[in-house]
Amino acid sequence: MPPPTQRPSYLKAAIDHPMHRTALGVLVILFALCLWRRLWSIALLLIAAEALYLFLAPRLSPFQKACDDKNARLEAQKRAATLEQIASRLSTNAKARYDGVQRVCGKFLDTLRAQPSPEALEALWAPRLKTLSEWALRLLVSIDATRADSRDLRALQNEIESLEREIAALAEGSATLAAKQQKLALTRSKLERFAQVKDQREAAIVQLEIIEGVLDDLLAKGLSGHDEAAFGAQLALLSGQVDALGDSLGGMARQQSDAYALDSLKALNS
């Protein structure tokens, strides 16, 4: 799960606020004039005004909410840039599939906006669609990272057969026998890992196809969802499917993150 968004420092935000910076510049000039004219009481009032602002502003709920909203926007922009960078490194086919997922998500949101109470529907489904899109990207990264060249498989198989023939031809106690046996064990281990990666890739492809199927189902029902009650019932059924899919993918991602595509998967989790 991604870590929770860190709350900003409200005091720092109050200090760095553009209006405060402007006011602070004016205050410094006035303070300098007061010192020059020996207007001590006014100088103390200026200091008190600054201290009062720095004490009250970070504690005001509207100010805190504005800071939280700004921080959330910056985090969203940063994450979007990270996801775009990861997507740009996908293979051509994987990038095309990811673009297709995003197009379907966009079409479905457009359908929701044509429904009664579109704000509530969009607030409910926009995060779900974003999650599905990110799961698709996660799986496509995994699929790309586990592409297994059939030539590599044949090379490993040929190497094993060659080593087995060489070992069979060596006399017991030969100086090179132990070295050949060790090399054979390592090559067989590589072949086993090759098979595991292939299984992981096939599982990722299946999960990606499930996501694409869910999105296609959403879009198909969304386009025909003229009856508000019926459409709402369809969305309720699909929401359960989305939640179940998330649980399934969560377990799979924990296994995959230990095996391959670490940099991209860590970026997706951040």
Short description:
With 270 residues, this protein is an all-alpha fold. 84% of the residues lie in helices and 0% in strands.
Topology:
Elements: H1 10-16, H2 18-37, H3 40-56, H4 61-88, H5 92-113, H6 118-145, H7 150-169, H8 177-223, H9 228-256, H10 262-269
Helix pairs in contact: 2-3, 5-6, 5-8, 6-8, 6-9, 7-8, 8-9
Key traits:
single chain, 270 residues, 10 helices, mainly alpha, disordered C terminus
Can you offer a commentary on this structure?
The structure is a single chain. The protein is an all-alpha fold. The protein folds into two domains: 1-88, no CATH class; 91-149 and 190-270. It has ten helices and no strands. Helix 6 (118-145) runs antiparallel to helix 8 (177-223), helix 6 (118-145) runs parallel beside helix 9 (228-256) and helix 8 (177-223) packs antiparallel against helix 9 (228-256). The longest helix is centred in the last third of the chain and has 47 residues, at 177-223. It is elongated, with a radius of gyration of 30 Å.
